[in-house]
Amino acid sequence: MMYLVCFLISMVPIVELRVAIPFGIANGLDVFWLYPICIIGNMLPVPFIFFFARKVLVWGKDKKYIGKFFTFCYEKGEKGGKKLQAKAGKGLFIALMLFVGIPLPGTGAWTGTLAASFLDMDFKKSVIAVILGVLMAGIIMGVGTYMVKMGAGGIFAFMANSK
Asked: What is the pTM of this model?
């Protein structure tokens, strides 16, 4: 059941596997199963985002209740794509991979894929860059989680033994 929760968390925009992996590790899940489940969950929306998100955002920009949010998302994708292209030049593949892979707010598979679609990148190349970025983010989050977990455990063990 907890693997399903991690799978679903990894599909959610913004949090993605950056929350799902630490959540799974904190709940004692086996990393051997946790990583592939979270990666698949994080990558599952990618084709839909690439082919349909831009069209849906354009459609919803002028709607009464959702217009502001859709406009925000459209402008974020467009701005992200232009910024990525300006910084990357011909190294767009590497830039996209790093953008997705470095776990900072506003980056990740959802935003990276949306930016790739705004840049009219090749689907296959953008998916490969995004999956490499997702793998990198997963490793960073896993290592970071274990460091915090071991660090906190080490601190508590030291405090308990020093009394």
From this structure: 0.82
